[in-house]
């Protein structure tokens, strides 16, 4: 998998951009447009696009009743079509050659083989995007920082149901451990 030198050892993580999470956004179009631009730019620069999805076995044996986030799924109180809910949103669907990783918790690393895939590709720099900023993005950023990855967060390729939480995370918290930029700047810097 050849890449230009500037982006060597880099991968774009598209996290939890699944039908159910996209439906939770008030206005999904700006987010979808930004993340589509990120995916297209990554592909044109031969940067691997790795999709991270949440998924469970039938009956949710992986979900503890102590887990407030996922217990709602197990109890059936979210009223979701689970097959549709866990599919990557059609507007940013994976293409042949993209890697899809299923995780069992909030962080992209927890309960998945992400670290094995990153090692096999020689990835040292992660470009983070996804829903939600306060969920998968925050948890993955923290764990990736502890694992000594170089991290870039695309602020407009992340979304949260709470816009103020998104703002605080991307302007005050994330910059402590990552570069935070918007997709227009990154695309401009990575024109072929």
State the main characteristics.
192 residues; 8 helices; single chain
Please explain how this structure is put together.
- With 192 residues, the protein is an alpha/beta fold.
- It has a single domain (5-189), classed as Rossmann fold (3-Layer(aba) Sandwich), CATH 3.40.50.
- 38% of the residues lie in helices and 19% in strands.
- It has helices at residues 19-23, 29-44, 68-75, 82-85, 114-121, 133-146, 163-173, 183-189, and strands at 10-15, 49-54, 99-103, 125-131, 150-159, 179-181.
- Strands 3-2-1-4-5-6 form a six-stranded parallel β-sheet, with helices on both faces.
- α6 links the parallel β4 and β5.
- α2 (29-44) runs parallel beside α8.
- The longest helix has 16 residues, at 29-44.
- The protein starts with 9 loop residues before the first strand and ends with a helix.
- The model has no long low-confidence stretch (mean pLDDT 87).
Produce a short descriptive summary.
With 192 residues, the protein is α/β, with parallel strands linked by helices. The chain has helices spanning 19-23, 29-44, 68-75, 82-85, 114-121, 133-146, 163-173, 183-189, and strands at 10-15, 49-54, 99-103, 125-131, 150-159, 179-181.
């Amino acid at each position: 998998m050849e890449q230009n030198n500037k982006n060597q050892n880099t991968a774009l993580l598209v996290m939890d951009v699944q039908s159910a999470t996209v439906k939770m956004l008030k206005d999904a179009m700006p987010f979808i447009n930004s993340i589509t631009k990120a995916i297209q730019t990554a592909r044109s620069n031969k940067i691997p696009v790795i999709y991270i999805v949440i998924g469970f076995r039938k009956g949710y044996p992986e979900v503890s009743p102590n887990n407030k986030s996922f217990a709602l799924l197990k109890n059936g109180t979210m009223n979701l079509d689970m097959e549709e809910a866990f599919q990557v949103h059609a507007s940013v669907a994976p293409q042949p050659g993209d890697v899809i990783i299923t995780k069992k918790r909030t962080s992209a690393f927890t309960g998945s083989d992400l670290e094995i895939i990153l090692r096999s590709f020689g990835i040292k720099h992660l470009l983070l995007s996804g829903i939600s900023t306060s969920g998968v993005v925050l948890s993955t950023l923290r764990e990736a920082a502890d694992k000594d990855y170089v991290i870039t967060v695309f602020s407009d390729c992340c979304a949260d149901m709470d816009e103020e939480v998104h703002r605080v995370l991307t302007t005050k918290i994330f910059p402590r451990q990552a570069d935070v930029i918007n997709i227009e700047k990154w695309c401009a810097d990575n024109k072929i």
